[in-house]
Design brief:
- The protein has 19 helices and 7 strands.
- By secondary structure, it is mainly alpha-helical.
- The protein folds into 2 domains: 179 residues, no CATH class; 230 residues, no CATH class.
- It has a 3-stranded antiparallel β-sheet. A two-stranded antiparallel ribbon has the order 2-3.
- The structure holds NADPH dihydro-nicotinamide-adenine-dinucleotide phosphate.
- This is Delta(24(24(1)))-sterol reductase.
């Protein structure tokens, strides 16, 4: 086989990859690959509309969150707007009055949110975990970082603690829904404080990377790639332990609220408890797959990631829960077949999301020689490919073309999006606001997919073109 044909050949990983792979068969980065990696670690072009775009987002996100919450909570879940030019000022006054009177931070809500952060940090430092080696980091001269994956033990500890606090009446879970507006403001304050704090700390004491030189843009995108306290990776900790834990607690809070009000929990609320529970459990039981995701190896820890983790995810993805906790169940009652369809769609989408993520992450671990089976619950069939086919790139990396990855280049995005859609469908047509998550998320995913493919096209050149010819579709075969 000539060098050229060897380079383009798709290969099979041997079956013994299911266990630890011998180091001499692992990926090796070529000189050319290292050059491209260096280029990708420099700022070249502005994304997200540059300084103006990111400033608009930093001011727009909080305003949008307040607006949607006000519509949901105080206007029966309907979109409200000024009815004439002269109504603009009174309308804005009404909105501001809600923020001031119903969403001001209090010592109580500040204490609650802080307690969650401190508790989750404490668990991250103390709970037993599984050690996973991350991908080689080009900016650290291809050194790999170790991740102590103890999110699952921490999640179980959180569940037990919350159960204890709720049943002993020390902290009733309904308090989360009852103090929603104020907690949301505290979360936003944390989002801003951590983003700016970590930016200045990195500039003063760290190693800023991929900097543009524009202050607003660099705060938004972040300055550091791998912020750590001891062995705790703050970016990975914040991606799982705050947003998805809190979102699950909000769903349970909604269930408790319904139980206290009506004496039962609706199938719709139970659906959201299941959906958010599956999501946090997936992140925790497969935490060792997270170092292989784009957020970990490429995205810096800036406002975009921090604000969304501390405030955006928990306080906007929960709109259907808030609606159901504050509205009569007759507004969103379905027929039995409709419930079967809804639950069936969620479970199917979840299955594809979970297994496509694990197929790719475990493939990358196999190629790196760091894969070891981890028996967390549940392990789904087809989660690990035994003889994956791949394209060997000139860069050194290998691109998977088996499993779900034979059908589309982002099967995980498509499945994740369908899950988000069901989180809105659960209220039917009662309110448009719970559909915010799926609308926002499709925009994020399409944009992120474009950014990722642009980067991969630079990184892999002709090999990427070959890959796109083999795997033609982006999200769903025959559709997009
Ligand atoms: P991917 O899992 O698609 O990772 C992209 C990277 O994987 C690429 O940059 C490339 O990296 C590598 N890659 C791409 N294709 C292949 C292949 N065929 N074989 C091997 N490696 C490949 O994206 P994300 O990390 O962005 O997604 C993680 C999950 O998180 C998604 O399911 C997404 O939906 C979810 N998510 C959810 C959010 C939410 O708010 N609910 C927000 C953001 C993400 P390299 O250059 O190293 O080859």
């Amino acid at each position: 086989m000539t060098a050229a044909t060897k380079k383009m050949a798709s290969g099979h990983a041997s079956p013994e990859l299911r266990n630890r792979k011998p180091a001499n068969d692992t990926i090796a980065f070529t000189e050319k690959g290292r050059e491209v990696d260096k280029r990708l670690d420099k700022h070249e072009t502005y994304e997200f509309g540059g300084p103006i775009g990111v400033t608009a987002m930093m001011t727009g996100f909080p305003m949008l969150m307040y607006y949607l919450w006000i519509c949901l909570w105080f206007y029966d879940g309907q979109i409200v707007h000024p009815t004439s030019i002269s109504d603009i000022q009174p309308f804005l006054n009404r909105m501001w009055a809600h923020v001031r009177d119903d969403a001001s931070p209090t010592a109580y809500t500040f204490g609650l949110y802080t307690a969650l952060i401190v508790f989750q940090l404490f668990l991250a430092f103390t709970m037993p975990g599984y050690e996973q080696e991350g991908l080689p980091v080009p900016s650290l001269n291809y050194k790999t970082l170790k991740y102590n994956c103890n999110a699952l033990a921490s999640f179980y500890a959180t569940l037990l603690t919350m159960y204890g606090l709720h049943t002993t009446h020390i902290f009733r879970l309904t308090e989360i829904i009852d103090n929603f507006g104020s907690l949301m403001t505290v979360a936003m304050i944390y989002g801003f404080a951590v983003s700016f704090g970590i930016y200045f700390l990195t500039i003063l004491f760290g190693e800023p990377m991929r900097m543009s030189g524009n202050f607003a843009y660099d705060v938004f995108m972040g300055a550091c790639l791998n912020p750590r306290i001891g062995n705790v990776d703050l970016k990975m900790w914040a991606e799982v332990r705050i947003p998805w834990v809190l979102l699950f607690l909000i769903a349970v809070s909604g269930g408790c609220k319904q139980y206290e009000t009506y004496g039962y929990v609706t199938p719709n609320m139970a659906f959201m408890i299941l959906a958010t529970g599956l999501y946090i459990n997936a992140c925790a039981k497969g935490e060792e797959c997270i170092p292989q995701t784009w957020d970990m190896f490429h995205e810096k820890w800036g406002f975009m990631v921090i604000f969304w983790n501390f405030a955006g995810v928990p306080f906007t993805y929960c709109y259907s829960i808030i609606y159901m906790a504050s509205h009569d169940p007759s507004k969103y009652r379905f027929s039995t077949p409709a419930y079967f369809a809804l639950y069936g769609t969620l479970l199917t989408a979840y299955y594809i999301f979970d297994t496509s993520m694990s197929q790719k992450s475990r493939f990358r671990q196999q190629m790196q020689g760091t894969y070891q089976a981890r028996w967390t619950f549940p392990q789904l069939p087809w989660g690990t490919l035994s003889e994956p086919k791949y394209i060997q790139t000139e860069h050194g990396n290998r691109l998977l073309i088996s499993g779900w990855w034979a059908f589309a280049r982002k099967p995980n995005y498509a499945a994740d999006w369908v899950q988000s859609l069901t989180w809105g469908l659960v209220v039917g047509t009662a309110s448009p606001i719970p559909y915010f998550y799926s609308l926002f998320f499709i925009t994020v995913l399409v944009h992120r997919c474009g950014r990722d493919f642009e980067r991969c096209a630079i990184k892999y050149g002709k090999d990427w073109e070959a890959y796109c010819r083999i795997v033609k579709w982006r999200f769903i075969p025959g559709v997009y």
